[in-house]
Amino acid sequence: MQQEIKIGQLDCTVIGPYSHTEKPGLVVLLCHGFGAPGTDLVPLAEEVRKAANLPKSKVTFIFPAAPLALESFGGFDGRAWWMINMQKLADMTGARDFSELRSSVPPGIIEARELLNETLDEIFHTTSLSWDRLIIGGFSQGAMLTTDTVLHSDHNPLALIQMSGTLICEHQWRNQIQDHHGLLVLQSHGTIDPVLPFEAAEWLRDLFKENGCHVDFEEFQGVHTIPMSILEKLCTLIQKNC
Stretch 42-65: mean pLDDT, rounded? Predict the structure, then answer.
């Protein structure tokens, strides 16, 4: 079953049981990247469900749409968790200097995190589940947001999924990650990513590893995209925990 509902203040696509009477055993929440429509990652649910041979009653997939509409972004319904200066990012790429990126605290990330936390609180209330039955993550900007949300929380989810994310908010994250020993992270990044540099993904991987997190890092020969290999690992993780 698929439904479009508001959870907290975010419009969400929900696939699977979601009510006070119909409850899953596991929730997978994935956040899309900058400039993508809110439904960008929705097809992954059926792909993962079929590959993992999952009963529909076991797992609920939730895909929140970012709050900011980018009506002029490429002429389609693009959305953003916070605004990005794309020219500045391009300049960093051209100069191969990403020191400012890793230390930056993007304006709007706090508000985005608060909105996502409201959504999570309502999900936990509706499903009677808690963080240890949650797989949370996303692609690109959605990966950054979910990392920030997890590290600001007092809990570890079942797993954090990082697809083409990067290191930002370095000072904050280094302080907060000390409380997340044992966090399981599935991370993927293309070695020729022209949007977010591979070396910045390595910085993030190392930050996790240096602080006692369990990181499964999937390096692939590709650009800013989601490889099948990370979805296969997500399938395996879900199968083990259903």
Answer: 89
Q: Where are the alpha helices (DSSP H) in 70-186?
A: 86-95, 99-103, 109-127, 141-152, 170-176
Tally of CB atoms within 10 A around 131: 15
% of the chain with per-residue pLDDT over 90: 78
Domain count across the chain = 1
Joined together, the tokens standing for residue 221 give 């020969």
Q: What are phi and psi of 207, to 5 degrees?
A: -60, -45
CATH number for 146: 3.40.50.1820
Residue 127: CB atoms within 10 Å: 22
Place of tokens 């696509």: 13
Which structural domain, as residue segments, surrounds residue 73? 2-241
Specify the residue for token string 């009506």: 71
Token reading at 25: 């055993």
Q: Is 40 helix (H, G, I), strand (E, B) or coil?
A: coil
Cβ(191)–Cβ(225) below 8 Å: no
What's the confidence (pLDDT) of residue 1?
80
- Helix, strand or coil, per DSSP, at residue 217: strand
